[in-house]
Write a structure and sequence with these properties.
alpha+beta; Double-stranded beta-helix
C-alpha cells in the first residue's frame, strides 16, 4: 500500500485552528430573535425539528455554511453569543435543537430514542453498568462518537477543569505516516470493538472497524480505545497482537503531544460542533460545584448530515448505511435502524 500525506483543510495543527475563518461564529440579536420564533411553537422540551423546517432567513444560510465547513473545512466550529441567562433549561434546549437541526438530522443516543443527552456527572460508582464517560468527572481519552457531527451546548461550567480538547485525525494520520509508516497500515485494518453496554438486540457482542480509512477519495477516522481493549479481553475473542497494541499506543502517544491539539473552555452558551470523521475530542477531569443547580451541564446532540462523506463498508455494522447522503449513526431502539436520508 503506497500512502501519501493528506493535504486537506482538516489537517490543522494545534492552535492553528483558532485562527481559521471557519472556527468562530457569533450570534446576533437578530439571530436569537429568529431562533425564538422558529423554536417556541408546538414542540416539546428537547424535541428537535427536521432539518430545514424552522424558518431562519438570516441565520439559516450561515448555518448551512457552517455545515459545509464541518464537512470540507477544518471540521470544527464554535458558535458563541447565545444568551443562556435569558432562558430556563427547557427553552434553551429547544433553541439548541432548532439550531442544530439546520445542520442535520438528530439521531437517537439511547435505546429509548433520546436525541438530546445530558452530559453531567451522575455520581455512579466505577464499574456501574449505567456509567458512560460523559456522565463521570474523570478525564476522557481522545475518541469519536457514533455520528457524522457531534454538538455540545454548554449550559453550566464546572467549578474547575472540564476543558474541551480537539485534535485533527487527519494530522494524526500524517504524523503516523511520517514517524511510523510501518504501523499506519495496521491502523487501517479492522480492530475489534465491544458493543457498548447501553446497546441491546445484537447477537454478537462485538464488531470490527478500522481506525483510519481512505474510501472513494475520502478520509475517515474513528476511535474509542476503551471498547477496543474490552473486546480483546473477552473470552471468545483473540488476543490483540503486539503490532496492533504498538500501533494504538503510538497513535495515542502522538495525540497526547500538546502542540497537536487545542484545549479551550466552553463558556455557558457556547456551542461546539465537530465532524467526527476528521477530529477526535476529549475532556479533562473536573471538580464540580456542590449545589445541584450549579453542577456542570452540557447538552449533546448527534447529527447525520446531508452532505456526509462515503464510508468504507467496514463501518456498516457500527453506523448502518455507509453511502454518501444517507442517514446513519446513532443508538436506536430495537427494530428502528434508520434508512435513507430524505433529499
Amino acid at each position: 500500500m503506497s500512502l501519501q500525506p493528506l493535504l486537506l483543510p482538516a489537517a490543522w495543527r494545534g492552535s492553528e485552528l483558532l485562527t481559521r475563518e471557519d472556527w468562530t461564529t457569533w450570534l446576533t440579536e437578530d439571530d436569537i430573535t429568529e431562533l425564538e420564533a422558529a423554536s417556541l411553537g408546538n414542540h416539546g422540551p428537547g424535541e428537535s425539528m427536521a432539518a430545514g423546517e424552522a424558518a431562519l432567513p438570516g441565520l439559516g444560510p450561515r448555518l448551512r455554511r457552517i455545515g459545509e465547513y464541518l464537512e470540507s473545512g477544518s471540521g470544527a466550529t464554535l458558535i458563541r453569543g447565545f444568551p443562556i441567562h435569558r432562558y430556563d433549561l427547557d427553552t434553551a434546549t429547544r433553541l439548541f435543537a432548532t439550531l442544530a437541526s439546520w445542520l442535520g438530522t438528530p439521531l437517537s443516543q439511547s435505546v429509548r430514542g433520546e436525541t438530546i443527552f445530558r452530559v453531567q456527572d451522575a455520581g455512579l460508582a466505577e464499574g456501574h453498568p449505567g456509567a458512560r464517560g460523559p456522565n463521570t468527572r474523570r478525564q476522557l481519552s481522545f475518541h469519536t462518537d457514533r455520528c457524522d457531527v457531534i454538538g455540545f451546548f454548554c449550559v453550566r461550567e464546572a467549578r474547575s477543569g472540564g476543558e474541551s480538547e480537539v485534535i485533527s485525525s487527519v494530522t494524526l494520520f500524517n504524523e503516523m505516516l511520517a514517524r511510523r509508516p510501518d504501523l499506519l497500515p495496521v491502523l487501517m485494518q479492522p480492530f475489534l470493538y465491544q458493543r457498548h453496554t447501553i446497546e441491546s438486540g445484537n447477537a454478537i457482542p462485538y464488531f470490527r472497524q478500522p481506525i483510519f480509512s481512505l474510501h472513494q477519495g475520502h478520509f475517515s477516522a474513528t476511535l474509542l480505545r476503551v471498547l477496543i481493549d474490552r473486546a480483546y479481553s473477552m473470552p471468545d475473542t483473540p488476543d490483540m497482537t503486539e503490532l496492533q497494541r504498538e500501533a494504538l499506543d503510538t497513535l495515542e502517544r502522538i495525540a497526547n503531544e500538546p502542540d497537536l491539539s487545542v484545549r479551550f473552555c466552553q463558556r455557558p452558551g457556547d456551542i461546539l460542533f465537530l465532524n467526527n470523521f476528521v477530529t477526535l475530542h476529549r475532556r479533562t477531569a473536573f471538580e464540580d460545584h456542590p449545589e445541584q443547580e450549579r453542577k456542570r451541564l452540557l447538552l449533546r446532540i448527534w447529527l447525520s448530515v446531508p452532505c456526509n462523506r462515503p464510508l468504507d463498508p467496514a463501518f456498516a455494522d457500527f453506523y448502518g448505511a455507509t453511502e454518501a447522503g444517507t442517514l446513519r449513526g446513532g443508538i436506536w431502539p430495537p427494530g428502528e435502524r434508520p434508512g435513507q436520508m430524505s433529499p
